[in-house]
Amino acid sequence: MDNAGRQASPSFDRRRRRHLQTREEILDAALEVMSEEGVAALNLTEVARRVGLRQPSLYQYFDSKTAVYDALFSRGMRQHTAALRDAASAAGGGLAALRAAMIATVRFSVDNPVLSQLLFTRAVPGFTPSAEAYRPSLEAQELLQSELATAVQRNELHPEADSERGRGLLIALAAGVSSLQDANDPGAAFDDGRFTPLIEPALEMYASYFAPDR
Amino acid sequence: MDNAGRQASPSFDRRRRRHLQTREEILDAALEVMSEEGVAALNLTEVARRVGLRQPSLYQYFDSKTAVYDALFSRGMRQHTAALRDAASAAGGGLAALRAAMIATVRFSVDNPVLSQLLFTRAVPGFTPSAEAYRPSLEAQELLQSELATAVQRNELHPEADSERGRGLLIALAAGVSSLQDANDPGAAFDDGRFTPLIEPALEMYASYFAPDR
DNA sequence: GTCTATAATAGGATAGAC
DNA sequence: GTCTATCCTATTATAGAC
Questions:
Q1: Where does B1-63 sit in CATH, by number?
Q2: CB-based contact, A207 to chain B, within 8 Å
Q3: pLDDT in tens, A157-191
Q4: How far apart are CA B117 and CA B101, in angstroms?
Q5: For chain B, which residues make up each domain, given as ranges?
Q6: Which end of chain B is more exposed for a tag (fewer CB within 10 A), N or C?
Q7: What is the pTM of this model?
């Protein structure tokens, strides 16, 4: 191959690292712009300005505006899945992990409202995520399902909790609290939100509805 | 006044009715376009084409694109409030009315996803509804609160249900089910939705959590 | 890899004839 | 009240020099 030697050289690695770093900066700037102008109103000229480039130079990093959205989607899904996984594993599995995961999800949604719109709603007209970008969300689903099974096995929840209905209700609670917060107290962080504390009684309500002895 | 005589004449009334009717047709077409292209991607040229007019003629009916959004918002809020009010009064007040109102809200959201995005989220960048357009939603809030009070008085719900926390949880349930449906099974009507049936156990969960004897 | 210049398009809004 | 014509601006994307 032509570039076999170049791939092995340290300068090539440095260049590639720099390239990837600039890509990240572009994505960060894109999120900023979307925060200010709206998810659907991503403006590449403004993004370029913020990273200190001219607009055509962005095409060295992304093939199109849609590619920027897709990279944001992919990175966002990975971040969300990681947050969920970390919270669940720190809580030690089972019902405690489910609680922690749902709280982490609300926190993520509220602290990243723009990204959440991109990830969880159809806010951007032409955009459909690629299969690769969508994949991390499958891991998150599996993780949730596995913790539900654990909670049932540990006799922390009724077996009915580990059904499509039970899973749906759990997710609906997190989605509901997030959207309530976003609609009625936008801009507030998770820890300052007027509605985010509702996730606690919501999970309590869920746990008592699916109590093991029912 | 100059037009005192004209206002009294039947032809003036006819003309005014026709004008208002065309306004409605424009709003309907706008919703159609938004359904296909995205809430934020309202395109006045396309709207004009669908109602059989040229784009500049729309300015006889609305001063600007924002005015179209505002009229949609106003009409949508009135429709939602009416649906909620009708459902509640048909159910006879109290807990039954609350259930009916929440189901009506989910139905409205799922059957009008685009309109719901405009009403309940910040999907359209530059747009903020006028105070007048926003008013009907206050009536809906009062109605909900009054039925909560009734349900407590009738000993159908624990007094704690009629608190900010209780109200928040109730609304979060409806919002959660709606957003779950929209995100995971978009396009389906309320009666065919894979997730809309969750509103029933959700309300059951709510009622048992706020059972009067707890 | 970044730039200038520019193409290509789209879409909101206004002027003025009929 | 509707039209044609047009303006104006914004913004994605490409060509080609350095």
A1: 1.10.10.60
A2: no
A3: 999 999 999 999 999 999 999 999 999 999 999 99
A4: 19
A5: 1-63, 65-214
A6: N
A7: 0.94
